[in-house]
Amino acid sequence: MTAVLEISGLQKTYRSRKGVRRALDGFDMTVEAGQVHGFLGPNGSGKTTTLRTLLGLIKPNGGRMAILGREVPESLPEVAGQVGAIVESPQFFGNFTAQDTLSLLADAGGVHKDRVVAVLELVGLRDRAKDRVKTYSLGMKQRLAVASALLKEPKLLILDEPANGLDPGGIREMRTLMRNLAESGMTVVLSSHILGEIQLICDSVTIISGGRRVAAGSVADVLKSNTSSSVKVALEPGVDMRNAIELLRANGAQVTVEHDHFTVGNAGNPAQITRILAEREIYVSELTPVSADLESVFLQLTGTAPVEGQNRQVDQTAAAPAPANGGWGQ
Ligand SMILES: Nc1ncnc2c1ncn2[C@@H]1O[C@H](COP(=O)(O)OP(=O)(O)OP(=O)(O)O)[C@@H](O)[C@H]1O
């Protein structure tokens, strides 16, 4: 496979009167050709900074970047025609129709007029193409933004939160569109906070936290290598869960409390749970393995799982993620 996008050791520090903020701290990312690649990270972790740096909108303080094998920002003029991107919500003239808007952009970019009709059809705006943009919903503006990025048939399409504002039907259409684009040979990089969606659409992912890569690879590999054996535990009806949870935590278990059960995240040896609880005459009514999903891996790796009684602040992430495999009770 060939890398369409390569970033290594990227550094970006913002300086303001309030001091210095290190947004990227040696960030690495590789995206292979023809993939739909998810770029994930909590608020403030450095996603937009990475994408803006890549597109030459801000200057890095160090590191290397290449698009389609060409070093950027130096070779950006040569590769720009092959990259379509929506990094921040684009602003459109409200009095223009989608067709006017795209025709204007096509003219400016030397793109044939036929392409305007094709992209309107692709993003599902054909029937509203002659309405003014100011009458569009958020999701329709989002579709128009994607259409504008597709005009020049880019080899690499970069989308920041493309599903933002879309209804469930729109999200599903966007998913199909991304897959079809990848099948036609385009490489798609998308950032999103809808992790279930990323798990469905993407071939591979990069997870960023605190300006550094914390996981990368195929979705299956990231799930496999970052999932400890979790089990769902329910107690007999009417039994107070608090004693059981305290007891397990005192023994080193990572316990997440749900409304009528709890999950033990590092249960290498589930028999240990029943033994510890039974010794105190607490009996479990259910002990079921939990299959991994991208959301729980994301929360674990970025240290952003909600903690009871605490309001996590945006820059708070775990210093070091808990070890994935193995754990207490082995
Ligand atoms: N112009 C700026 N000046 C100072 N700090 C900035 C600037 N832009 C971004 N930052 C800081 O850099 C860090 C990374 O921000 P960035 O916008 O890249 O995060 P993000 O991952 O895109 O977040 P989100 O998911 O909320 O969009 C944050 O702490 C942010 O406050």
- What is the CATH homology-level superfamily of the largest domain? P-loop containing nucleotide triphosphate hydrolases
Percent in strands = 25-35%
Instruction: Note the run of SSEs as H and E.
Output: EEEHEEHEHHHEHEHEEHEHEEHEH
Shape: elongated
In DSSP terms (H or I, runs of 4 or more residues), the helix count works out at 11
Top CATH class of the largest domain: Alpha Beta
Mean pLDDT: 87
Q: Identify the bound ligands.
A: adenosine-5'-triphosphate
Query: Into how many domains do the coordinates divide?
Result: 2
Largest sheet: 6 strands, mixed
Strand order of the largest sheet: 6-7-8-3-9-10
- Structural class computed from helices and strand pairing: alpha/beta
Q: Count the strands?
A: 14
In terms of per-residue confidence, which ranges show pLDDT below 50 for 5 or more consecutive residues?
A: 319-323
Question: How far is the N terminus from the C terminus?
Answer: 39 Å
CATH architecture grouping of the largest domain: 3-Layer(aba) Sandwich
Q: What name does CATH use for the topology of the largest domain?
A: Rossmann fold
User: Roughly how many Å is the radius of gyration?
Assistant: 23 Å
Helix residue percentage: 25-40%
